[in-house]
Batch of 4 targets.
Target 1
Amino acid sequence: MERVVIFDTTLRDGEQSPGATMNRQEKLRLARQLERLGVDVMEAGFPAASPGDFAAVSEIARAAKNVSVAALARAVKSDVDCACDALAGAVSPRVHVFIAGSELHMREKLRKTPREVLAMAEAAVSHAASRIRDVEFSVEDASRADPAFLAELLAVGARAGAGTLNIADTVGYAQPDEFAELLRFVMARIDGAEKLTFGVHCHNDLGLAVANTLAALRAGARQAEVTLCGLGERAGNASLEEVVMALKVRQDVYG
């Protein structure tokens, strides 16, 4: 039976919303509530960002019993090791490796060529998979990436050991129809796509985070990255409650 994995990133991306920063005790309290709510995966933080975030992820990882706990890492070995160390003791740990995939971000932010980005992704995901079985690989700014390169980059992540491939509309640029088409394009070009979970991470800069998420789910995505109340960087992320209730109320559409 197909089902949608609810990946909550309130504790990571949501915390980047102005006024939503949490200390370690507050993050642990919210993590307990997310576990009670029944999300499938909670992204507890970005361990390499600060000692405080490392400590919070580590505490949440040890406390959670009925939910997968994810930790974010850039596609560099030190970040991956930091994330894996923070997840030690978790019942169901996940390392979430990401790298930019659009020409603009590769050139201006990473200052890397596409070939260098492919090599970085392969090395980081492979290293993550050597330490933790459940690896997610995300391409940042994927909605503005060249579709053929995006498919190639995601395929590299899959071959290196990622079981979940995530397409991020990082700056809220996508439109629902084109986002769904991008997902179909990518899925058709990755060997073994039927054995992988495809996810989406949408921002709300144009007010379309939920619409883009739902369009992607109809197109074949099976993981929705969401936050409580749509909290998140800039205009926010896709709202957990809106996505879930759309799926629940309109089962005639989504099945």
Note: The first helix runs from residue 24 to 37.
Target 2
Amino acid sequence: VASAARDAAAKCGLQNGDGLAALLRDGDDYHYRRGTVMAPYMQSNVVWSWDGSQLVSQMTNPSIYANELSKKAYYRALALAPDSREAHAGVARACLDIQARIDAMAEAGMDVSELQDKSAEGALAVAVAGPDALDLALQWAVLNDDATTGTLLCNALANAAKGPTAGLISALDAPDGGVRGEAAVALGRIAIHTKQAPDARVIDALGQNAGREVVRIATLIDGDAARAAQVTEALTGRGVMVNHRGDGAKGLAMLNRIPNVDIILVGDSVTGMTADRILSWIAERPVLQDKPVFFLSQNEEIAEAYSGRVAGVVTDLADMSALDSVFEAGLDGDRAQADRLAAHSAETLAALAAAGQNIGGTLGALASTLAHRPDAVSIPSMHALGLAGTSSEVAGLLAVLTDGERSDEARTAAGDAIAGILGRHNVDGDAIDGLRSVFDSDASLAVRQAAGRALGRFALSSEERAELIRRVRTTVAGS
């Protein structure tokens, strides 16, 4: 029996009897759906396990099948070594991923009633996993460029960590813009509930998140670092969030996990893989077939050779006009994700300002959200401006307050932000006319009250204040 067990263990890749290492490796391989444990077609709606001497089936969903097997491997590792930090981290990572996938299925209108127990189990496991395990899982995600899980772990750590963690700090430099943004939000929230001053990098990143209006999401796969930096700078200037990978395998892995991009750019020099292979892989993926792909090469002959396989080529980095057709098209759904990150960042900055932290370096970014961003972004930005803004931001806020097309919530927030600024700074008297026009208008009571609160902060003469009070009787009582 012992000999048969050794032979079977060797076939499973178990070396030197280290069962824990084998189970941890299996958990990681299943999480990333590696070919060592799964072929592309290996998905099922059943997971099997032993109950004594009987095989027992448990229904699942094919989209979380690999995650279930990953979780199962980590739970076995936990049984073998309860003190294994890696096993704790693996369980938490698998549970978070399962929860997110179930939520995504529910949002897509699928019936997930039979999966709710799994979601509940995952929520409880993550809650008790502890910050050390969550942070180790986040370090794995950053190391493996696992953007989807990385953002989930940043969110979990925001509520669990007792201070800045190694994983969150490393995530500030992650290749994926979404992970960097969520790490900044998490570190900001940790600073709030621990009553500590966040690092200046965190404040700067939150300001960038809030002020960045993402028009497009781009994936850039290019091993030429200098060219990639130039392209990224040019696209960022157009409001595009660029996720760059210099390694071909990492670039394709990112596209496999996050296919909802607006544009894909592939350079003629990629680490570890040919451009030909990358383009073929993209063409073979149905989910990517409607995504415009552009080829980058300063060599016109090479560019011409690939021109028939892509939507366009870019040979002159000073001229990005070839991409105009993409920028003129409608927005992709990832815009909503970017707006959510901007909203969370603005909310965090407002809370930091309320706690007495200096967010002065972000005022310009916050003010840039007032004119064209959705209320979910602009309203928390106005809250932050009300707590930390200066007279320079009053004009933008007044434009919102006096705009009858804006929502009552936005206009009220603008009035209160102006009142907050007036409590700290002297403001040019020209603003009084705009405030009076709203105060005397047929706007809602909430909007007029906000304008009144701002007017009340001005150093008005007794006669001016009496006139405003008399107008109230006229406009409200009609006498």
Note: The chain has a mean pLDDT of 88.
Target 3
Amino acid sequence: ERTSESYRQKFLSSLNVEIIRKRKFKLVIDYSHGVTATIFPTILGTLGCEMVALNAYLDASKLTREQKEIERALRQLSHIVTSLGEDIGFMLDAGGEKLFVVDEEGNSISSDRLLVIVTKLILEANPEIKKIAVPISSSMEIDLVASGHQIQVVKTKGSHLALMNAATEPDVGFVGGTKGGFIFPEFSFAADAMFAVAKILELLTVTGEKISALNRKLPKFKMVQRDIPCPWEAKGKVMRLLTKESESMKREEVDGIKFYPGIGEQRSSVFVVPDKERALFHLRVESAEESLARRLADEYERKILEWRDGK
């Protein structure tokens, strides 16, 4: 009983409502035919936002979107944001957990990059934060941003449950996922896309930043991703040999093995994850230089194939 009223009260009490009202944001929101369309418009009205709403009615037949449909929806969102001169565009998934963002220039921000941008905003606006948590699969860009603020970065498994558990740890002031989910412990211990929208508006107001400007100036690494087939019975052997291969390097063993080769002056990482459902490995290599990322990806793909085949 009174669930919506209680939610709204907690929502607004966890924000600096006045500064958001003064900013008078103009937004485009795609509700993806989800239940957030029945709750969020009144909250945005309270925050003094002007809003163009898309897909703002419940439709059980449209609650899931394939990747192509998501990309098409983001292109539409981008077109409307730029055509109307809006401040920012948001797309909430039907479940109200994941968030997609289009900046004021119409650029669709990838989920990995959005995590970096929101991390920077939260640390700029909240210097008292001592610790944040992100998945082990997150970019090294996060570590660079965090190092500029002298805070600890806790690396978790990629599941929502692991992120929720991290949010309950002492001193963790923010938990961000790589798929568009964000947890703000002062409000909730689960991802909430509606609160993430409002919090991003607050952070943009407090810092005076714009999404597009942050995207340009924050560090960017090059990513190479590959899937490498491997029979189930060979996965254990490959992981043992990979553990031995990386034992002299800095590494993190969460979900799979992530290690940092440290070639020359370049910052690089190699992350190998055995797929839980399919007979393959995910290889994710990151470096400041694309040529080095590709070279490392080639090297470790070759090694994994050799170990798989017993060579």
Note: The radius of gyration is 21 Å.
Target 4
Amino acid sequence: MRFPVKPLKLALVYAFVASTLLVPTTSALAQSATGADGLDTALAVIPGSFEFTLNQGDSVVSESLYVYEVGGRSINFWTYNSSYWLDLDTMSASPLYTPRLLFVSILTDTLAPGTYTDTIIIWASEASNSPLLLPVTLTVEGGDCTVATQPASFHFWLAPGEIQYDSLYVYEINNQFTSFIHFNGSDWLAVDPLGPTVNPVPKILPIIVDSDSLLPGTYVDTIFIFPDTDAAVVAPFPPVAVPVILTVEGDSATELVVYPTSFDLTMPPGGLIIDTVFHVWEAHGQNVIFWFSNHSLWLTLPPVFNLVTPDSVPFTVHEDTLPAGIYYDTIVVETGEQPSNSPVLIPVKLTVGGGGYVVATQPSSFHFQLMPGEVRFDSLYVYETHGASIPCAFYNHEPWLQIYGTWGPLLMTPTTLTLAVGDSLPAPGTYADTIFIVPEGDTTMFPPVAVPVALTVHPPGPVVKAVPDHFQFSVSPGDTLNGI
């Protein structure tokens, strides 16, 4: 229970939930009831249920829930649910009033992988289809835990008696929470903290390589990453082996090393910017001067000429002038030291999306039939058929059709639009409008989508009523009722 209400009301709500084994369908969410004014009074909601699929450890995911009375009236209501991972933003003990847009939040921080269910209960004393039951299903993924490292291996070149420092980044590729221990066998390789200390991911492990007392030659060790099997709540993962090679030599030649060794970037059209970085060092720990260059205008390097190893170089990729397609450039890293492996080449591939997106809607059209003074709400689901998240916008023409997006007229697929019909109904007759879904920014991203909307406004007519509006009999077997 989220808010205190009168014990009798709460008992009625939970008695109703306990007595039914059926979850109401979407059509049942707006069954009509007769209020004191003789007009239909019923609650309705958009959407009629929720299904969430999240990764383990996702903090908060929010969706909107629109509660309204089908005739457009303002009636008070309360909301309830039972699970701690499902949260509604109704932070007051006072009743809420229709129409009302609520926000439903999901928190998965402490949930193990699996499927969870709860029910949002909406109760209103003035609606006889109360309470409404909205099933909520949450699937927490994360059964497959995979730990990786950056880099995946090491190769050090040291002179006798030389010491070099580095680091190993350990992480889980799906951002799941787990912990690990690590081991290695050689005295010349020290990974801090030493020994089987439990470390949560992500974690940066400092590494020290010391060639003291080592003769020239090649030495090999392995850093093993194992799951912390003593922690029952931590997801297991296959062990990871990180090879470490040490070459101890006398006079060392200059050798530039870059990381990453290549870039493969993908961007949607629309003038977005990617800021990234590459690292340059000398394989034997020497301080040497280096410089860099490239030739494409969409890849911008900093305006400096000479840097000293080790150092990191930021650069920017911006595709505001590029149509959809694939583009290539090369970052050239050079040094004047001899002998050396200069220049070192870093290939850069840029894929600009566009033209291949297909946007669709559910439903593909609408037909509303209203009486004068009536207001109707509905929803339009907009999505990219391959699951891509792309920017788009919407518009229509007629004032009797109002459309509301979560963040205004600009959208990122997938999204749900709320439609309100009847705010300013025209005279009785048949009318038409069209909802257009168009690309935002690059007009070649996808073909515009048109959703036809038809409206029939019926003329006012006689209202037929029956008194009483229902009968209820209680008889024993064999009894006969006469004179009703």
Note: Helices lie at 7-19.
